[in-house]
């Protein structure tokens, strides 16, 4: 702890007397400054014990009061007036002004040089710094041994909580709680989900500090909490939260920073291992999609812990343009892997940069943790589209991939987040007609009819729509329009003339009907 005014006053060799502000002697002293200026505040930073002989202060009460106000407003923690030179005793007006502002006022006897006070504070500050360095070095050694042990990150969390005299919690890249110490702090750590989620959306490293915030921490607890994201390449790999009764000291900050560095290093090392596993998983996925399931099982049994067994789905995700969308695709992969790791669910993941941008292919159990995690992640991130295959056996993964690709194409064209293959197979072709190329074709095909309707009698577009919807039945179509069938026949001949096409041609009818429906989408 830094020296306080109380510790300075208790130094018997200084013979200091407290004349005002005795209730505020626990303020830490960051430095000692001597000044005879009537306004020394431009040269102060706050936290100083200011020493003066008062040579320019005089004895006017108004001037002394203004002097004290300036010092208190500047954050000075105490004022020492040396007597025997400019003042034989401390002016009563100065004592009263200091008492009014709660500013500790010390009487410095003539026999006590200012340099002695400065040396006392400097020695205490040096001792504090030495203690901080020694403590932080010991903590680093302890945390490093914990990191190299069997429990790894969990051991770091436990040692950190003990060092801070509070609690600590570690979250994975998706924001899920993975370790907490002591055990009773799990409930408090769980209430930080919103804070962790905010940090997930910011580049790492970043941090947030809060105290007793309603909805996040019990106000009765009044914990001082620091949440820190962990990651070396701007992408959070995890999050560390610590809670203490009071604000952490500079020494405790060193300890916290050491833990952050070790956890980041551990997570990055784990990431390298995961990258190697991802490459193996991608190779196994290619084998499965190519129909080489038997060979893939043999390889995976010894090196990968096996393949997903049972009914599976293939999910194909694509990112839109821009770096943020590409990062979201990486977060989707992390979410899938974390979900599988928590419950021991096998999955295969492959990331590729294709001609249409980055793609992510996931093979996972039908309606399993990974499947659900992917659906949730896509809904949270704009710029992602996901196609999901129908349930299939592992041997049918190649077919399932093709289904997922078709579903993804429908999702991208329709501006949707997720499309299942079941929707593609059971749905309608009409939603696909909203694509720009189809719309442009429809507008060009029907333009002669619409130009006619704007300048001449007879609604050719409506007549064509009614005639096609009635499959060329003149009486029924004429009744729908409320005109005579001869009038409708005339209009259809006019349609053929303007388009230069015969309505007896089935392909022409199909194109005209799709063009009309495209305008409705």
UniProtKB/TrEMBL annotation:
InterPro entries recorded: CdaR-like_regulators, PucR_C-HTH_dom, PucR_C-HTH_sf, PucR_dom
Purine catabolism PurC-like domain mapped to chain residues: 8-125
Segments forming domain PucR C-terminal helix-turn-helix: 460-517
Superkingdom: Bacteria
Gene3D superfamilies: PucR C-terminal helix-turn-helix domain
Pfam families (alphabetical): HTH_30, PucR
Entries under PANTHER family matching the protein: CARBOHYDRATE DIACID REGULATOR, DNA-BINDING TRANSCRIPTIONAL ACTIVATOR ADER
Official protein name in the record: Purine catabolism regulator
Taxonomic source organism: Kitasatospora cineracea
């Amino acid at each position: 702890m830094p020296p306080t005014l109380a510790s300075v006053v208790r130094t018997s060799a200084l013979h200091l007397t407290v004349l005002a502000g005795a209730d505020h002697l626990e303020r830490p002293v960051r430095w000692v400054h001597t000044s005879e200026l009537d306004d020394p505040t431009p040269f102060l930073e706050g936290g100083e014990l200011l020493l003066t002989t008062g040579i320019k202060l005089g004895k006017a009460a108004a001037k002394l009061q203004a002097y004290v106000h300036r010092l208190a407003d500047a954050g000075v923690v105490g004022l020492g007036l040396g007597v025997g030179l400019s003042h034989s005793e401390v002016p009563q007006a100065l004592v009263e002004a200091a008492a009014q502002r709660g500013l500790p006022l010390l009487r410095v006897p003539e026999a006590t040089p200012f340099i002695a006070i400065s040396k006392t504070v400097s020695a205490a500050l040096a001792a504090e710094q030495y203690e901080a360095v020694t403590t932080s070095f010991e903590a680093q050694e302890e945390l490093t041994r914990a990191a190299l042990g069997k429990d790894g990150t969990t051991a770091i969390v436990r040692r950190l909580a003990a060092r801070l005299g509070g609690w600590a919690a570690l979250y994975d890249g998706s924001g899920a709680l993975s370790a907490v110490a002591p055990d009773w702090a799990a409930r408090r750590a769980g209430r930080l989900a919103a804070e962790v989620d905010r940090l997930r959306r910011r580049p790492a490293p970043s941090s947030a500090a809060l105290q007793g915030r309603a909805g996040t921490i019990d106000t009765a607890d009044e914990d001082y909490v620091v949440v820190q994201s962990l990651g070396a390449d701007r992408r959070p790999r995890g999050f560390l939260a610590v809670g203490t009764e009071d604000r952490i000291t500079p020494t405790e900050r060193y300890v916290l920073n050491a833990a952050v560095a070790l956890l980041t290093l551990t997570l990055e090392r784990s990431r390298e291992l995961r990258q190697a596993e991802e490459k193996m998983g991608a190779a196994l996925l290619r084998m499965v999609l190519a129909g080489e399931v038997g060979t893939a099982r043999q390889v995976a049994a010894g090196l990968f812990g096996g393949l997903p067994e049972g009914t599976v789905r293939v999910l194909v995700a694509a990112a839109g343009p821009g770096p943020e969308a590409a990062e979201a695709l990486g977060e989707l992969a992390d979410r899938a892997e974390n979900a599988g790791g928590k419950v021991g669910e096998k999955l295969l993941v492959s990331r590729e940069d294709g001609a249409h941008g980055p793609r992510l292919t996931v093979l996972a159990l039908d309606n399993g943790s990974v499947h659900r995690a992917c659906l949730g992640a896509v809904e949270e991130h704009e710029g992602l589209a996901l196609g999901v295959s129908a349930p299939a056996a592992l041997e049918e993964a190649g077919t399932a991939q093709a289904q997922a690709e078709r579903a993804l194409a429908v999702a991208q064209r329709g501006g949707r987040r997720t499309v299942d293959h079941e929707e593609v197979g059971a749905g309608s072709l009409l939603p696909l007609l909203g694509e720009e190329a189809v719309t442009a074709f429809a507008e060009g095909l029907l333009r002669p009819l619409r130009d006619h309707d704007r300048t001449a009698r007879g609604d050719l577009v409506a007549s064509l729509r009614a005639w096609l919807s009635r499959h060329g039945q003149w009486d029924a179509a004429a009744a729908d329009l409320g005109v005579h069938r001869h009038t409708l026949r005339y209009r259809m001949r006019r349609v053929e003339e303007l388009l230069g096409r015969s309505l007896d041609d089935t392909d022409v009818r199909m194109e005209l009907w799709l063009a009309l429906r495209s305008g409705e989408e």
